[in-house]
Design brief:
There is one protein chain. The protein is of the alpha+beta class and 306 residues long. 18% of the residues lie in helices and 26% in strands. The chain has 3 domains: 58 residues, RNA-binding S4 domain (Structural Genomics Hypothetical 15.5 Kd Protein In mrcA-pckA Intergenic Region, Chain A); 83 residues, Pseudouridine synthase (2-Layer Sandwich), CATH 3.30.2350; 136 residues, Pseudouridine synthase (2-Layer Sandwich). The longest helix has 12 residues.
Length: 306
């Protein structure tokens, strides 16, 4: 057990204090507090507790749990790999981590076969190495942390908007603006707990989009999208809310389309960041999935140059 005596501190929550001074993620701090593995002056506290000078903090590290997940030899496109991180191109239809109804066949199962024992444990037993997610039917770039130091660094970079993500989407309708920003808070829908919605009481959510091409005959617009925040279903919710749902989205639209596409035509195409450990600048691109490439080039006749 590690003991810490708080010295000079000013109006700081315990989760923020330990994240900054002990290199423990706020998610991990919350879990340790809930499990009674962190005590302040011999008592349990909430993550919002404001640490005081001379507080005695005791930290009992969790015993590593044996991951019950099985590695599965599932083909996955690797875009980048080193000793600290892995960047992959997740296919449409693949769930990122196990959940109800999806016990295996996930990105985590595939990554475990690639990385063996080299995965961060911060994500918990069923989310080893997972720093961020994509929806099941959104394809494209996902970053995987191979160790806790990288996981914490990437999480902080995402929080501080130091990682730029670029998406490609086909939406229903003809958008008049060449580019615009959607700044609307998002929270859990009050009418359907499985969905998200724009809400005054939600968390900040900012989406920028630029029109790449309009197809009036098909009533479709091709967009390049960049996000400042990473709320659940953010792009899908924002575009649906302003009247331009993503083609194929059966949650925030009716899903109908002339090509019978199931699931949203949304692809996480690029990511730009400085390496979380070496600081080296990185620009990674994920090729469009074949179905989306064919619709854009063959069906809509757009010359895709990226």
């Amino acid at each position: 057990m590690k003991e810490i005596i708080v010295e000079q501190v000013s109006d700081c929550r315990i989760d923020s204090y330990l994240a900054e001074n002990e290199n423990i993620s706020r998610v991990a701090v919350k879990r340790l507090l809930e499990n009674g593995n962190i005590l302040v002056n011999g008592k349990t506290v909430k993550p919002s507790y404001k640490v005081q000078e001379n507080d005695k903090i005791q930290i009992e590290k969790e015993e590593p749990k044996e991951i019950s997940l099985k590695a599965q030899d599932i083909p996955i496109s690797i875009l980048y790999e080193d000793t600290d991180m892995l960047i992959v191109n997740k296919p449409k239809g693949m769930v990122v981590h196990p959940a109800n109804g999806n016990p295996d066949g996930t990105l985590v199962n595939a990554v475990m076969a690639i990385c063996k024992d080299s995965l961060s444990g911060i994500g918990g037993e069923i989310r080893p190495g997972i720093v961020h997610r994509l929806d099941k039917n959104t394809s494209g770039i996902v970053m995987i942390a191979k160790n806790d130091k990288t996981h914490i660094a990437l999480s902080n970079m995402l929080k501080n908007h130091e990682i730029q993500k670029t998406y490609i989407a086909l939406v229903r309708g003809i958008i008049k603006e060449n580019q615009a920003t959607i700044n609307m808070p998002i929270s859990r829908s009050t009418s359907d707990r499985k969905k998200m919605a724009v809400s005054r009481n939600g968390k900040e959510a900012i989406t920028h989009f630029k029109v790449l091409e309009r197809f009036p005959k098909e009533n479709i617009t091709l967009l390049e999208i960049k996000i400042e925040t990473g709320r659940t279903h953010q792009i899908r919710v924002h575009l649906s809310h302003i009247g331009y749902p993503i083609l194929g989205d059966d949650v925030y639209s009716n899903g109908k389309n002339r090509w019978g596409i199931e699931g949203q035509c949304l692809h996480a195409k690029e990511i730009e960041l400085n390496h979380p450990i070496t600081g080296k600048h990185m620009h990674i691109e994920a090729p469009l999935p074949q179905y989306l490439q064919e619709i854009i080039t063959k069906e809509l006749g757009y010359e895709w140059k990226k």
